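User: My collaborator and I are trying to settle a disagreement about how two of our proteins should look. Neither of us wants to argue from intuition anymore, so we agreed to look at predicted structures for both before our next call. Could you fold the first one, then the second, and keep them clearly separated?

Assistant: That sounds like a sensible way to settle it. I'll keep them separate. The first protein:
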Amino acid sequence: IKKMNFSGIDQLTAESGLLNFILADLGVSSMQIDNPDRGFSFKEDGPLDLRLNPKSGKSAATLLKTISVDELEAIFQENADEPHASPIAHAIVTFRSKGGIISTTFKLKEVIEKALSFLPEADRKEVVKKSCQRCFQALRIAVNDEFGVLEKFLEKIPFALAPGGRVALLTFHSGEDRRVKKSFQHFLREGIYSEITAEPIRPSAEECH
């Protein structure tokens, strides 16, 4: 067992040799999400942290203190396909420009709710909930550079696998899925992978339950 980021898989294989099988679970642990001190969820109030390693890097609260509206809008769009990225990003930066500080999960949720107050009341509650989920996800991905780390990992997989080795990745949203598909298809065309699954293997209804 090694406590390390999987983007450093080449360091691991330098010690252990090539691998016959790689399984990477790209999900976040429910134990982290359920802990309000980590700031992953807006169900309970807590510090807006979102770092997978609280001892490294900048928290989401720190990021929101200086980020531009264009950068924030891009994060919401690229990391979570948020349809209301523009009004939410503008609301956050406007709140900040008036001296507001977004340091807790509830405060971010409150700003998102106000940004979407233009929506019809009948639809608003459900749309706000989904936008909160996507915005928290997008900030978590940005704070932890999850896509950058994933791309480094994908680039190194062919050089970590032994001949005849296999790799399987568990993805949980479109941003991860796109990058995995693109990498697998690229290495298949290059003749490095001998075959890939034609379509993602999805969980059955029983597994989802």
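The second protein, kept apart from the first:
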Amino acid sequence: MEEIYFGTYTKRQSQGIYKADFDNETGQLSNLQLVVSQQNPTYLTFSADNCLYSIASDKNQGGAASYTPDFQPLNQILEEGPAPCYLGSDDKRGLLFSANYHTGQALIYKRQADGQLELVNRIVHQGSGPHANQSHARIHFSDISPDRYLITCDLGTDELTSYAINETGLVQPIDNYQFPSGSGPRHLTFHPIFKHAFVVCELDSTVHNLIYQGCGNFEAYQTITTLPDDYSGFNAPAAIEVTSDGWFIYVSNRGHNSIACYRFILDGYIHLIDIVPSHGQTPRDICLTADEKYLLVAHQDSDNVTVFQRHPETGRLTELSHDFQVSESVCLVNRPKS
């Protein structure tokens, strides 16, 4: 049994952050509970010592909030304007990073001894792109690389920017990787073994397979679609996950309402092996269970979570259920073992 946590919008019925039990033997979710009442906690992350951090909103302010391992509030850091959309962390240096799609900023927080946050730095991007959603810089991802450089994906300027960063949160720009104009890089994940990084682009429904040379430097290697050839409707990919053995990658398609499944092979290329219906509307986030036997999909607009069983050798997905209800869920997180 493991615990799955849900970050949500609170525009309709949701009241904040929820948790549910997941049975790794039966593949069933149960026992949904509200653990934190919070306005629009749309992204979550746990620290290694099990403190919980979430996006936070209060009226016309947005920022980040911290909680003890038993979900007692520690502190919130809010400022005027829309809330961020992503949280990343560097446990070794005690840092937390937020990415703000609306303001084009990445904020850097220092974790205090008791788990509270202190805002220590701010990165501000400038620029725009040709797409209607690229009127200005829109940072959608801010997190650490395996060699501990800070990496941002800017959906508004089609750039991946890397920064050297120290334990106080001081940053120095290192490199800019430019994606094709109008592609909209959204989220990034690194291969756990080989020097590859995978970036899902929201505006042109692609995955970019990059060579990560280390020290914040990337180079192009492959671009592959997230969609079938015969689909021409609206689509905006959201989440990307790679298995711990590095052989399989999964992407959620909002619009086509599907999960794209890829296999990584030893020549460094990824191959699209399947695209399966997600069994809901707007699959925003996906999450592998701790044993990676299952993939969970949270749907923002139909309020349901789909459970797929995952074949460990082929990577293919088999739907087990899609009737577990979590209102407005947009983030799925496993709680780390204590």
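Some points you might bring to the call about the second protein. The longest strand covers residues 28-37. The two ends are 14 Å apart (CA to CA).
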